[in-house]
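Continuing from the previous page...

OK, I double-checked the sequence for Glutamate receptor against my notes and this is the correct one:
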Amino acid sequence: MEIAARTTFLFLFVNLILARRAIVSGAATLNVGVILDLQSLVGKMARTSILMAMEDFYVVHRNYTTKIVLHIRDSNADSVQAASEAVDLLENYNVRVIIGPQKSSEATFVSDLGNKSQVPVISFTATSPTLSSGFVPYFLRATLSDVAQVNCIAALIKGYGWREVVPIYEDTDYGRGIIPYLVDALQEFGASIPYRSAIPVSASRDQIEQELYKLMTMQTRVYIVHMSSSIASTLFTKAKELGMMSEMYAWIVTDGITNIINSLNSSILDAMNGALGVKFYVPKSKELDDFAERWNKRFKQDYPNDSLSQLGTFGLWGYDTIWALAQAAEKVSMVDDISHKQWHRRNSTCFGTMGASAIGPKLLDEILHIKFRGLSGDFDLENRQLQPSIFQIINVVGQGSEEIGFWTAKHGIIRQLDQNGSETTNVNSMPDLSPVIWPGELHVVPKGWQIPTYGKKFRVGVRTSGYPEFMRVERDPITNATTATGYAIDVFEEVLKRLPYAVPYEYVALDNADSRSYNDFVYQVHLGVYDAAIGDITIRYNRTSYADFTLPYTESGVAMIVPVKDDTSKNAWVFLKPLTTDLWFGSIAFFIYTGVVIWLLERRINNAELTGSFFRQLGIAIYFSFFADRERVDSILSRLVVIVWVFVLLVITSSYTANLSSILTVQQLQPTETDVHELIKKGEYVGYHNGSYVGDLLEELGFDRRKIRAYETSDDFADALSRGSKMGGIAAVIHEVPYIKIFLSKHCKGYTMVGPIYKSEGFGFAFPKRSPMVNDFSRKILSITEGDAIIQIEKKWIGDQHACQNDGSIASPSSLNFKSFSGLFLVTGVASTLALLIALVMFLYKNKHRIRNSISRVQTQGGYGSEHADRQNQERELDYIQAQSMQVIVPNDPEDGTCQQEIEISTEFTSPGSEVQPSPVFASRETPDNSLFRIHP
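Thanks. Re-ran it with the corrected sequence; updated structure tokens here:
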């Protein structure tokens, strides 16, 4: 022990002396270990880039006093070998930084060694998210985590409308690490991963082929490939041989392959034709172009036997890593570079003997603060890894790749980079990408799924319905094959004819169908017993939790079947029903008003019909209102009023006659019940089909469970309805509209449908959750229901819907109200009033002089003085005496044989001294022009 202690002290002392001499001479060194898989393409690419970075950096920075010394080791793609090389570099070469290792599985153990010895471990190729842990603070990632690209991949899946994808990944830390994050990103918009294809690194070509055969038996045709280039080469080669690089297939590769896509063998690129890829976007620059040219020459010198490769992103990250490390080393003093060990033993592999680097924390801190613009873009490890910014989307075409667009976290998928950030992706449309050449050299976007043409057939679940018209299932006793017929089957097979692809299928009958509900039937789809379930399956909310439904192919709703009654027992006042009360009273009021107007107009010109008392004349005028077309009116204004009124009367009488006829004929058949709530109030019995969800619905509506009766067939319903609720039957059947149509086609006479009284979604086909076939089936069902096909299917299985006169809701003819004729009454009222006003104006105009004299006389009476009063009284008395002795004899025409008439004209005056009140009294007939007037005093 004493000898070992002295040896350790001597070793430390010598290292300290050498370090001080190096500082004095101006040439300090920093030992850096590099662990790569030098047999792989990425390892070779990284080695060339690292060596060129060393040369380029110190040519530019000649004045730097600290230089790094590289110790490159080969891991041979083995994690144990990588760990062994790391221990050797730490123990025997006193390295203070380790670059690499190349694979994520190798970096997991080496990062623990770096954490223990306080030596920073920087990897620019290990991308597994599992390495981003706070427990290994000395691990830095000079690349992107695989998590950064999952959102870009999810955006592509979402943009093209694919609902299911299958990841194909190598069964390592690198392959498995991305899967949880990919699942979360896809679930955000409803996509799912029905299967995960994990391929071991040691898988043979036959094993990969078997896995691809397995994928071909599934419906999903969208694959995300996440693996190293060596396994991917075999995978795509086999996929092309099996015909999987053709139409209906879509392939997306992650950046692990895309970053070196242009360096792959031409035969591999040919097999990958049509695939999409995502990779880190490297901004173009003149420095990058110059370096790429020099790199190609250097790589050819380093590996003359290899095919010419092109510089990839991993090479750029390796180049920038050396520049960052060299800058950080210059800022750390090498004087403090001492490893503190418990003891030292040469070539020891015991981890307990590993010391902690004195400059490790300082060196780590300096690396984290280094920021510069490198060949790959902005280099910044402040968050212990590079930060994602922009991803490039490429399309493998021919012997290379073509850029078709970009993805950014802010703007989504865009065709061209927009510095202003004004372009965004429309989530409801195709991605904004340049035209893509898909596998098979097609420009049509693959559907993303396909029914396999081999293997097991599409299993379609069927069951016999309570209404065989919708579905009848039979089993052939000889072949044991299941056959199905009916309305639902015809719709299903019509959909299959219209699909753009073939669907090999077979009908599978539900076991013990008589004792199982439709909920159980649909749940078999969720359990995977059926690939789809068809029939008279109502689309209900509770069933959507474990199955997806197509659009309905039948009418929706729940309605009532009720008997109809012959309403022939009309009461004595049925003739009043065509018009409402307000219309009756309004019509009477306008009758009277029109008659009064005619009387006033005709009385003015002394119509010969208007004689006798006041009430007699008014009655005759109102009579004109009823029979204006038969009675003579003399006034022009009266005739105008009569013309308008006759038109109004004609419209009212015609409408009355039509409505009364409708009441006496159409309304003879009336449903016995029209409101489901009235059934509840009356406590009537109702029926429903046994096993239907309508039974639970009736209880929810408020029916007493004891008042609900279940029946099996249409004949059972008809028998129960005929007996009625009081005779042990039912008052109404509550049923779904499609079933009611079948019932009425058999029992048309005496029954009708009332409603719908409750909303439902109709019948549809059930598929597993997120099945890609739902959308295709729904579109074809829509095309069937909008055309003539559904009508022909209904006629075949249900019959002519128009043959039953009782089918559909019956609406009673409604009484006519005053509002319906308000316009007519307004016209006749205005006409009558206007005629009356015109007559008044004419009368005032003709008698204006008399009216004016009367007004003047009244005014004059108030202006005489008391001195003229006696004189006026005397004149009045004299006039009175003369008038008593005046007589006028008017003889008739001498040639006329009639007798003469004497007309006395007397004028009464008040006695002298009283107020003057002239009262002329006329009792005269119309006098001919040749009449003679004789006055006898």
